[in-house]
What does this fold into?
Amino acid sequence: MAIQRRALVLNQNYEPLNVCSVRRAFVLVLHGKADVLTEGDEPLVGAQDSLYVTPSVIRLRHFVRRPHPRPRLTRREVFQRDQERCQYCGRRGGDLTLDHVLPKHRGGPHVWENLVTACRECNHRKGGRTPQEARMELLKAPSRPSTHPAVLFAPYLERYREWAQFVLGWGKSPVPLAIDGADAAS
Ligand SMILES: [Zn+2]
It folds into this structure.
């Protein structure tokens, strides 16, 4: 269903900003706030069965200033960083828990570098100990996830191959020259 498709929103300077529903992207384009750079492969069905092209990548006409995205530190984000894999036994999915590598009651902070995904069994087995004490090894040292678009939007690239050039290419090569008059001033 075209309606479940997502669209990639680029800032005016081509920086990938976020992902929205195709419908939302369509509305932005309709209101002249964005232009379609790449179309999706399925048309969007509108009223009276009229077909519209589905925006797959859109670019905002005006630059949106916003602070650099910081990954939010939530259970979900930690699970996502660890690809839903228990960082001790490597098992994927199931009943996942959040484990403080250095336990909280021993001063272990609630930070990316001290939090990992653990299955319930491993978390229970580890108990209030450090991995060394419990003789359990981490698959890899936990770290704060990168906020580069290539990392942020990586999960989408398998489905939306046409996004790759915008997502992977961001920051690597010179930003394409803006064509709007206002930006060509210099
Ligand atoms: Zn486990």
Remarks:
- Strands lie at 6-10, 16-21, 34-39, 44-45, 51-52, 55-60, 96-100, 115-119.
